[in-house]
């Protein structure tokens, strides 16, 4: 690495670039950055532990005062159910109770699923890899896709997971649709059609799927890790608060229990909250549709810039300072 970079030998020391008797440029970035940002606060905490830190947890823990999480955002014009040309029926926060279901019926028809507005449709758009918790789905899917539930998958990745979903689509042809591809048009249709989105990730720095599903009034069911934990507030039926469902441990039974609880709210709580069909579920959707956090993002960025300015002012006088970020 010394020969490739032309760096001086003193940089290849344990407190600089050296890593397991080699060099690590990411470590160098973390060492020399004025400030470090991640894409969620919870992920910033997680990577300071051995399980998530990939050998850099000690350095990250040492720099925790110079580290901040900023949740990702989405393009609210691209993902807008009121104007989206890729979905079957447009809707907004005022009329979604009547119009959103049309997207489900049309997608069921297109994918050769049982056409029934009362089915609980779960969407999953993902890279099909170990990180995404797909082994948990494999463990419980025979109990997940009961007579009242459908699951629609879009994505590509590891052959074992592609073939897994193909197998279940063959086994449960009227309940499981495996679309082993990436189609932006189909993805938009699924965001609008599904009742819930499942994200049981092993780890997730931020995640975009849950943010997009909020935009379409589709309720996320997530594991409490990284940005999923920071962006999804678990529903509390007694206080009538929350905008999604979540589970803490990486465990298939726990995930299935939360999915079943979500279905209980969807099917059985018709008179809770708004007095319409699936009233409590509609209340959750209504709380998630306008989920934007531009003001919070600006406040965090201004705080970071203030801290960097303070860091820069403490450096050598007379030397021009160029603040350096390291983004994880």
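^ structure tokens above, recovered residues below v
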């Amino acid at each position: 690495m010394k020969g490739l970079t032309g760096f001086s030998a003193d940089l290849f020391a344990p407190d600089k670039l050296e890593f397991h008797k080699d060099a690590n440029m990411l470590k160098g970035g973390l060492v020399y950055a004025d400030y470090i940002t991640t894409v969620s606060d919870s992920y910033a905490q997680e990577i300071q532990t051995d399980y998530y830190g990939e050998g850099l947890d000690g350095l990250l823990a040492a720099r925790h005062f110079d580290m901040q999480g900023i949740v990702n955002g989405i393009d609210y014009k691209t993902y807008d159910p009121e104007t989206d040309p890729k979905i079957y029926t447009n809707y907004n926060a005022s009329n979604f109770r009547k119009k959103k279901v049309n997207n489900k019926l049309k997608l069921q028809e297109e994918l050769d699923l049982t056409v029934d507005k009362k089915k609980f449709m779960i969407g999953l758009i993902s890279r099909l890899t170990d990180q995404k918790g797909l082994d948990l789905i494999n463990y419980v899917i025979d109990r997940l896709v009961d007579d009242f539930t459908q699951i629609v998958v879009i994505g590509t990745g590891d052959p074992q997971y592609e073939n897994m979903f193909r197998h279940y689509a063959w086994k449960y042809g009227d309940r499981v649709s495996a679309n082993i591809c990436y189609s932006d048009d189909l993805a938009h249709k699924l965001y609008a059609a599904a009742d819930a989105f499942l994200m049981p990730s092993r780890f997730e720095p931020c995640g975009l799927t849950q943010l997009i599903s909020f935009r379409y009034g589709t309720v996320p069911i997530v594991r409490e890790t990284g940005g999923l934990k920071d962006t999804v507030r678990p529903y509390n039926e007694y206080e009538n608060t929350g905008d999604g469902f979540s589970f803490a441990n990486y465990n298939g039974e726990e995930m299935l229990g939360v999915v079943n609880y979500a279905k209980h709210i969807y099917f059985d709580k018709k008179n809770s909250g708004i007095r319409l069909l699936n009233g409590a579920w509609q209340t959750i959707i209504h709380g998630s549709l306008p989920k934007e956090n531009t003001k919070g993002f600006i406040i965090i960025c201004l705080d970071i810039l203030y801290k960097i300015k303070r860091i820069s002012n403490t450096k050598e006088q007379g030397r021009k300072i160029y603040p350096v970020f390291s983004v994880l």
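The chain has a mean pLDDT of 87.
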